[in-house]
């Protein structure tokens, strides 16, 4: 047996280990006698050998993983390398409080930190020095919900509940955000309730909100904008706390609200889900403290952090032009410290910070991360949602101004390229390596919504389709904002965009496709998913007219007195009657008159009398959309 014994130094040699390493291994294995000349029996020697093998294997794997970590890469490159979405990377950057400058490169240690936080397959992150830079930060909260459900009242009541504000004797709103303190913890509320503002911000690249409070009136329950708010918050990946408001009302029914929202995926905690519900009355203040406590709790779970010593960056949440002071912007400082005298860039606006006003209306010299302040001194009004960051000095700021000019020039060229075709869309999907097609679906009725959804489900395609928002009625501005922010396309069935939505879509390059026949919609979608080149719908819209008056003419039927608002109206062409942007009837222009004269066509800006074939139910404010086929037009 003694033959099989081996001395520690011999084993170390065999395994190619230096003596101190050998000692530490023996220690880790709990082997007591670890002098160089000590004898190990074969069993122990084997154990050590196995242990070293394992250790080396892990090391090798880690090295392989480490090779994936390279510094000086952009967010885009990071996303590609780790096969995650750019949005997710951006969200984590914001959550962790890494300085956020569009187009900046991430250092190696940042890449490692970020990847570790995102749970990606990388070696454990151990850089103590780096970790120490980050401190816990206050959450930024946005209140959303249906109109009149009590968002504004709730924010007012919260401000009044706040110790910090009460001590100062101020409860009025000074800037576009308020800082509230509850149980010694700060909460920053953005005072711009509403999902449009929220998505408008997200569009410009910022995810400044950490938590959404969804206000639902207990007497009215879930409404259209409640659903929109949920979809917008979900698309941004922001956790939702539900405040069931107006519980002081006699017909309040909180259980019904829970049921309605549970059906939409917000399952209450007490039913085994993960959504926090807090019954409140914004009017009496009942439950408001519970709500604040829940916000603190949720914030703790999110482990929000920031680096207060790095470059200053943050987000503009509101802006306005003041008659006396000039442009004013309320910003949330998310990293570093913002100081009066700093040069900053917010969107396309570059300038020097003249003075800062804090949330209680007091002038301050500096604003640390995380806080809300109003910035005065910029040469122009930046848009809500723009990310801002500070420069080291004036010359750096000037350089940046030059670059912005160049960016603007390129942007103009892009805008000239016109609306997207299905082929453009497909190319884009391929370029962005999109793994699924995101849709916003609007239809005329609940029945058609179900039918279209069913038809879409039936389409067999390698690329999955996800409907991120659906609704009944015309395509409106908030649909365009959501589409732009999420990279979705909008499909309308039996509905049309409002004029405002159309303009917005054009400016943002959002694709809207509308159909009135279900198989045309599914054919186009199927083709898009399969990457086939398809002939676009042959029907061309030539004009629109607004019905101003309705006349009954005996023997003829109903005649609509119209104003042509777009293009032209042509006798004999196909016509669709739109009521609130929903198609209610398809027919053709049977008669067209100008001052009792029969005419062939009437151009934009002129009034005319229109008779529709087989349709006498025309109403004031209806719109008539006139279409033709290519052949007819040629
Ligand atoms: P917003 O449109 O969501 O901002 O709603 P508001 O805050 O303006 O509230 C709409 C109306 O509901 C106002 O008349 C409020 O006084 C009332 N309201 C808001 N919260 C409550 C509440 O908790 N109880 C009762 N009874 N009324 C409320």
Structure description:
The chain is an alpha+beta fold and 634 residues long. The protein folds into six domains: 5-67, Arc Repressor Mutant, subunit A (Orthogonal Bundle), CATH 1.10.10.2480; 75-132, no CATH class; 140-306, Rossmann fold (3-Layer(aba) Sandwich), CATH 3.40.50; 313-413, Elongation Factor Tu (Ef-tu), domain 3 (Beta Barrel); 422-533, 3-Layer(aba) Sandwich (Rossmann fold), CATH 3.40.50; 537-632, Beta Barrel (Elongation Factor Tu (Ef-tu), domain 3), CATH 2.40.30. Helices cover 35% and strands 29% of the residues. The strands form seven sheets. It has an eight-stranded antiparallel β-sheet, with helices on one face. It has a six-stranded mixed β-sheet with strand order 5-6-4-7-8-9, sandwiched between helices. It is elongated and about 120 Å long. The relative contact order is 0.07. The mean pLDDT is 86. The structure holds guanosine-5'-diphosphate.
- Ligands bound, unique: guanosine-5'-diphosphate
| Radius of gyration, whole Å | 31 Å
CATH topology (fold) name of the largest domain: Rossmann fold
CATH class of the largest domain: Alpha Beta
Q: Order of strands across the widest beta sheet?
A: 15-14-20-11-12-19-16-17
List keywords for this structure.
single chain; 634 residues; alpha+beta; Arc Repressor Mutant, subunit A; Rossmann fold; 6 domains; eight-stranded antiparallel beta sheet; six-stranded mixed beta sheet; 20 helices; 32 strands; elongated; binds guanosine-5'-diphosphate
């Amino acid at each position: 047996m003694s033959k099989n014994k081996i001395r520690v130094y011999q084993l170390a040699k065999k395994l190619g280990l230096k003596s101190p390493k050998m000692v530490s291994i023996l220690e880790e294995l709990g082997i007591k006698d670890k002098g160089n000349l000590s004898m190990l029996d074969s069993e122990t020697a084997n154990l050590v050998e196995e242990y070293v093998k394992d250790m080396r294997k892990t090391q090798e794997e880690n090295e392989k993983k480490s090779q994936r970590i390279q510094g000086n890469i952009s967010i885009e490159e990071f996303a590609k390398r780790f096969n995650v979405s750019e949005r997710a990377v951006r969200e984590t950057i914001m959550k962790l409080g890494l300085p956020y400058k569009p187009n900046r490169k991430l250092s190696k240690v940042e890449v490692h930190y970020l990847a570790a936080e995102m749970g990606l397959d990388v070696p454990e992150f151990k850089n103590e020095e780096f970790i120490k830079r980050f401190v816990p930060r206050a959450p930024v909260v946005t209140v959303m919900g249906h109109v009149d459900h009590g968002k504004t009242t709730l924010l007012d009541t919260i401000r009044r509940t706040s110790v910090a504000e009460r001590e100062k004797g101020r409860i009025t709103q000074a800037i576009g955000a308020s800082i509230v303190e509850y149980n010694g913890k700060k909460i920053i509320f953005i005072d711009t309730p509403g999902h449009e503002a929220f998505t408008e911000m997200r569009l410009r690249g910022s995810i400044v909100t950490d938590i959404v409070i969804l206000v639902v009136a207990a007497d009215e329950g879930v409404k259209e904008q409640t659903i929109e708010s949920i979809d917008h918050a979900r698309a941004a990946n922001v956790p939702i706390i539900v405040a069931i408001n107006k519980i002081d009302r006699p017909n309040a029914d909180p259980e019904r609200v829970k049921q309605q929202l549970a059906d939409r995926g917000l399952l209450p905690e007490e039913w085994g889900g993960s959504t926090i519900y807090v019954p409140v009355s914004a009017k009496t203040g009942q439950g408001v403290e519970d709500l604040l406590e829940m916000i603190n709790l949720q914030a703790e779970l999110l482990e929000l952090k920031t680096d207060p010593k790095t470059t200053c960056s943050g987000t503009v949440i509101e802006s306005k032009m003041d008659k006396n002071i000039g442009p004013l912007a309320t910003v949330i400082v998310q990293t570093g410290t913002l100081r009066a005298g700093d040069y900053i860039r917010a969107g396309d606006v570059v300038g020097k910070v003249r003075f800062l006003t804090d949330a209680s209306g007091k002038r301050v010299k500096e604003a640390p991360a995380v806080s809300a302040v109003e910035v005065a001194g910029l040469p122009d009004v930046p848009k809500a949602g723009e990310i801002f960051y500070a420069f080291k000095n004036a010359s750096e700021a000037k350089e940046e101004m030059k670059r912005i000019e160049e960016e603007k020039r390129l942007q103009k060229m892009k805008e000239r390229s016109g609306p997207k075709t299905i082929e453009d869309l497909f190319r884009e999907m391929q370029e962005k390596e999109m793994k699924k097609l995101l849709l916003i679906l609007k239809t005329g009725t609940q029945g058609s919504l179900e039918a279209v959804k069913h038809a879409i489900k039936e389409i067999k395609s390698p690329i999955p389709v996800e409907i991120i928002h659906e609704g009944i009625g015309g395509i409106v501005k908030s649909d365009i904002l959501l589409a732009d922010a999420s990279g979705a396309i909008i499909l309308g069935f039996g509905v049309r965009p409002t004029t405002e939505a159309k303009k917005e879509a054009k400016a943002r390059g959002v694709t809207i496709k509308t159909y009135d026949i279900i198989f045309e919609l599914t054919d186009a979608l199927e083709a898009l998913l399969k990457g086939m080149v398809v002939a676009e719908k042959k029907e061309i819209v030539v004009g629109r007219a607004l019905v101003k008056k309705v006349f009954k003419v005996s023997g003829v039927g109903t005649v609509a007195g119209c104003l042509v608002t777009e293009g032209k109206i042509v006798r004999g062409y196909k016509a669709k009657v739109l009521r609130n942007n929903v198609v209610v009837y398809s027919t053709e222009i049977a008669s067209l008159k100008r001052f009792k004269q029969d005419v062939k066509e009437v151009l934009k800006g002129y009034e005319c009398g229109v008779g529709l074939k087989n349709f006498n139910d025309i109403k004031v404010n209806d719109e008539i959309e006139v279409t033709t086929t290519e052949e007819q037009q040629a």
